[in-house]
Amino acid sequence: MKASRFFVSTLKEAPADAEVASHRLMMRAGMIKKLGAGIYTYMPMGLRVIRKVEAIVREEMNRAGAVELSMPVVQPAEFWQESGRFEKMGPELLRIQDRHERNYIVQPTSEEVVTDLARQEIRSYKQLPRNFYQIQTKFRDERRPRFGLMRGREFTMKDAYSFDRDLDAAKASYQNMAQAYRRIFDRFGLTYRAVAADSGAIGGDLSEEFQVIAATGEDAIVYCPDSDYAANMEKAEALAPAAPRGAATKPLAKTPTPGKSTCADVAELLGVPLATTVKSLVLATDVLDDAGNIRGSKVWLLLLRGDHDMNEIKVSKLAGLDQGFRFATTTEIDEHFGCKPGYLGPLNLKKPVTLVADREVAVMSDWTTGANEVDFHMTGVNWARDLPEPTIVADIRNVVAGDASPDGKGVLAIERGIEVGHVFVLGTKYSKAMNATFLDEGGKPQFLEMGCYGIGITRLPAAAIEQNHDERGIIWPDALAPFTVVVCPIGMDRSAEVKLAAETLYEQLLAGGVDVLLDDRGERPGAMFADWELIGVPHRLVISDRGLKEGQFEYQHRRETAATKVPAAGALSFLQSKLAA
Amino acid sequence: MKASRFFVSTLKEAPADAEVASHRLMMRAGMIKKLGAGIYTYMPMGLRVIRKVEAIVREEMNRAGAVELSMPVVQPAEFWQESGRFEKMGPELLRIQDRHERNYIVQPTSEEVVTDLARQEIRSYKQLPRNFYQIQTKFRDERRPRFGLMRGREFTMKDAYSFDRDLDAAKASYQNMAQAYRRIFDRFGLTYRAVAADSGAIGGDLSEEFQVIAATGEDAIVYCPDSDYAANMEKAEALAPAAPRGAATKPLAKTPTPGKSTCADVAELLGVPLATTVKSLVLATDVLDDAGNIRGSKVWLLLLRGDHDMNEIKVSKLAGLDQGFRFATTTEIDEHFGCKPGYLGPLNLKKPVTLVADREVAVMSDWTTGANEVDFHMTGVNWARDLPEPTIVADIRNVVAGDASPDGKGVLAIERGIEVGHVFVLGTKYSKAMNATFLDEGGKPQFLEMGCYGIGITRLPAAAIEQNHDERGIIWPDALAPFTVVVCPIGMDRSAEVKLAAETLYEQLLAGGVDVLLDDRGERPGAMFADWELIGVPHRLVISDRGLKEGQFEYQHRRETAATKVPAAGALSFLQSKLAA
Questions:
Q1: What CA–CA distance (Å, rounded) separates B215 from A292?
Q2: SS3 track for B309-365
Q3: Which one of B5, B74, B106 has the shortest CB-CB distance to A39?
Q4: DSSP secondary structure string, B205-242?
């Protein structure tokens, strides 16, 4: 491509609302253009990157035996009503009425439509397994779209859906997809982790997220440097402490802690480690009568170490809390604790609550917690002596760095990531809701076992940039760059030699199958180099009169700070060796 | 591709609502699947065709210097309000409100968004000309979607937009696109015509439609077999008759025509040619006062030969009718003619009307028309003698076969076509509405001159089928076929020789760059052949035990009725010669 026939449009300044590097750099490099909140035009430079992502994903999906189709962007609501998601999804689902006032939605994913397709097309076990995928425009009406393509409203997703005869076969399809995803992310040239994720009702290790590692990532990723354990924060298990509980050494005492309503403040006041304090979280579940009306509520007290955070997903899986819970109201708290939040604890309750102790709390001795009296905490608290041994002990906290790895092979570390892919066994959730069955060998109808597999096609370039940029701009991995090589002639309009050499090299590289751009815009060297460093083309060849006198071009990789001289005659093979590297 | 890794799903019967061949065949061949009214999933087999259309369009657009980008499907209404189309487009424009009750639309085209982009990006004449295109999902909420992909609501369109410094440059951009379109449609391998179309306010020859010729086409195309003149019916000019008006030979007479209210009935009753009758069409235009309120109306009488039809586009360009017109009400008709429709004419008026005579009517003598009295017509009517010479004579009719060609080189013929492309000079309609300017050499802001260029990507396969099918199914041109070649082994599961030969041939063809499918499904020959004839793969190679004994495969083109024996060893080169043909 010649720049004069392309569209290069860079900006000195990023717009004020661009908060993260990828957003700023994609705007400045002329890759995207904002049309509305979370809605972007993919400009020619950005579209080239997106097309490269698509091409790699498509190749590997095909290789893995998935078959491409394309489902409608605008979908009749009836399918979504059938699955129940029309109501459940809330305002994130963009709803439309057509001229006849019939309801439609703009697809955020396509489980319903693909399940409808499967129930019509898949009649026999002989047609299984099946995997359909599409690369298509999606829309999620995010409450707060931001970070450019990272959390947009309109985006492109590759979504694949597998159909199998039973759960074992579904797991095999899932593993096949997880392997394809590894090939895809390897080919992108990004540093990433496949981390175990919560798989909801299905259970087991049937969900993984593919996270591009970046300090600015929204997600915390838990991994073990000494093994291949990796999970997202929701999923990572905090093991029960190996050491047994220490003996009680301190007396139980009510200690004044005026105005100190957080564990951190109390620990500081008392001069004890934060890890010896215990915080109280009060939840409530509604109690329904046979007619389904709310008849009352049940109050739960969760005890966590002062330096630990509650893990909502883990809590939501406990018996009794797995049908939904909420934080208790001040009325409920007052009724059971006789005290306002900030000084709550498991002792001196007005009315019994259901107590859940985190595994870590269950082995503590001599701990500090609220006294259920404003401005007082209890110190020297000990299980069995001061209150009954907890009957419910569970993992209800987020892991922290240094926790033992669940695979027993070391301790956990935490880093930040950006979720760009997700593989998931769905089970029969949609096939049951929509009655999608096939006939087994015995001629008996069985529900299809499904899996779903997503890749955020337009989020991926943003994630790649968060991981690969510097103060000058983007640094694309070769596989994702809008152009792999840029040829920059200096003074092309003044020097016939430079022009000839540049065009000859350009034609040579093109003929050699290199994705090359010739910058024939006639910009001054400084502006030209700044543009391509901002845009992030990984390989640059500079042609100048001075270099030509020595029979040389100058090569510089985007990550390098100085150029290398390359004999003009050997430029193609030099570059090919660089590209193969 | 192996069929076992693809998705082949054919139907014996087409659904009842499939009215045209392309719709029936695409449904039966498993290319599309209906999700809702005018909304289809592109199934794997159909998507392959669409991708081939896209690839050819993309290559030729790039070759012509257009640059690809991708604009949002969901667009903020504010841009459409700026251009005025938010109101003007009516219910065809699909409207949405997001969670914040802000208005959006689903793009039917993207003039507004691309004009907004241009007004931000194009600052100087040095950046011109520019042409941006996209291949993206569109939606038009058709009142009556039908014919499958031919008139769907959701569809894929390639839309390109050119920006130029003045009208001459815009015309050059337009010609460049028209040339690219010719290359595109040539490459598709379809019989088509580029026909002149009405270019609205711009005037001149600045709009062409690309019509795929098919007996079932919705559009009438006018062309001259002896020249390259071609236009759509709206545009094709009916020349003034060359022969002068004949002398009056008959007396004017009021003739009883009881119950005969159409020209055809009157001609039959009187035993005269239909072409000697004149029909009256009564239009009205509102007369406004200075405040823009309707103060009254003006009534127009259009006279057309009995065998001719009014051309609404031509009428809408006449001075006085060019701001909009309507058919007259019965009250208006009664007030001016004193008679009900069916017997109206230019004689014996109660109140004067503005008379417009078609060019053909203006040279008639001894004609028949309504008497403005129920059950009577006037015969032997002659201009000058019986009523004044017409002051407004214009081309207001559709041409008919046999009319003189406007280029003077023969007579016109009419055939049917399906519009699949349109090139159009827009002028400054959008750039003025949205204030999209650039600075000229003198530093003065000028409005951008625009052009727009569409190709119905998903309609194209349907049009190709309307032109190319038989009772057995689709007959794809090579360039559009989902697979160019199908290898059909007979008894692959029973014969190791057949299996080996089929797989070897398949690998050979793949390596030779042939887009081949190996049907390894194990279907019986009859069902297998019927599937591929229905799907329309142009080249078929059959491998059987019997043939192998003679060292031969059987080749048959989809248009042929008998197979040719091909030496197994030479199959690749044989096929390559067929594909090159």
A1: 64
A2: CECHHHHCCCCCCCCCCEECCHHHHHHHHCCCCCCCCCCCCCCCCEEEEEHHHHCCC
A3: B74
A4: S-EEEEEEE-TT-SEEEEE-TTSS-EEETTT---PPPS
| Interatomic CA distance for residues A370 and A387, integer angstroms | 14
Residues of A whose CB is below 8 A from B96: 94-96, 106
The ranges of chain A with pLDDT < 50 are none
Superfamily of domain A3-237+414-465: Bira Bifunctional Protein; Domain 2 (3.30.930.10)
Q: Which of A195, A54, A26 is nearest to A479 (CA)?
A: A54
Measured between alpha carbons, how far is A421 from A183 in angstroms, rounded to an integer?
Answer: 12
Helix (H, G, I), strand (E, B) or coil at A375: coil
Tokens representing B307 are: 């065998």
Q: How far is B531 from chain A (nearest CA, A)?
A: 16
Please, are residues A354 and A299 in contact by the beta-carbon 8 Å criterion? yes
Give every CB contact of residue B579 below 8 A, 6+ residues apart in sequence: B478, B484, B485, B514, B539
Q: Distance between CA atoms of A152 and A140, rounded to whole angstroms?
A: 8
Region class of B490: left (phi > 0), else alpha (psi between -120 and 50), else beta = beta
- Domain(s) of CATH 3.30.930.10: residues in chain A: 3-237+414-465
State residue B407's pLDDT score.
92
Sort A384 into a burial class: Cβ within 10 Å, 0-12 / 13-18 / 19+.
exposed
User: Would you tell me how many other CB atoms lie within 10 Å of the CB of residue B554?
Assistant: 18
Chain B residues near residue A7 by CB distance under 8 angstroms: 67, 69, 121, 130, 132
pLDDT per residue over B322-334, tens digit each? 988 999 999 999 9
A113 vs B41, B50, B99: nearest CB: B41
Q: What is the pLDDT of residues B468-522, one digit of tens each?
A: 999 999 999 999 999 999 999 999 989 999 999 999 999 999 998 999 999 999 9
Q: Where in chain B is the domain with CATH 3.40.50.800?
A: 483-580
- pLDDT digit string, tens, across residues B251-305: 999 999 999 999 999 999 999 999 999 999 999 999 988 888 888 899 999 999 9
Contact criterion met (CB < 8 Å) for A68 and B47: yes
Fold of the domain built from segment(s) B253-394 = YbaK protein (3.90.960)
How many residue pairs bridge chain A and chain B with CB atoms within 8 Å of each other? Answer: 134
User: In the structure encoding, which two tokens stand for residue B491, read together?
Assistant: 């008894």
Q: What is the pLDDT of residues B145-202, one digit of tens each?
A: 989 999 999 999 999 999 999 999 999 999 999 999 999 999 999 999 999 998 766 6
Q: Which residue bears the tokens 């082995």?
A: A363
This complex has an ipTM of 0.91
| CB < 8 Å to B50, chain A | 70
Bin B3: left if φ > 0, else alpha if -120 < ψ < 50, else beta. Answer: alpha
CATH topology for A483-580 is: Rossmann fold (3.40.50)
| Inter-chain touch A36–B72, beta carbons under 8 Å | yes
Distance (Å) from the C-alpha of residue B256 to the closest C-alpha of chain A? Answer: 49
Mutate to test the interface with A, among B48, B49, B67 (most CBs of A within 10 A): B67
For residue A402, the distance in angstroms to the closest alpha carbon of chain B comes to 43
Within chain B, all domains assigned CATH 3.90.960.10 are found at: 253-394
Per the CB < 8 Å rule, is B96 touching A106?
yes
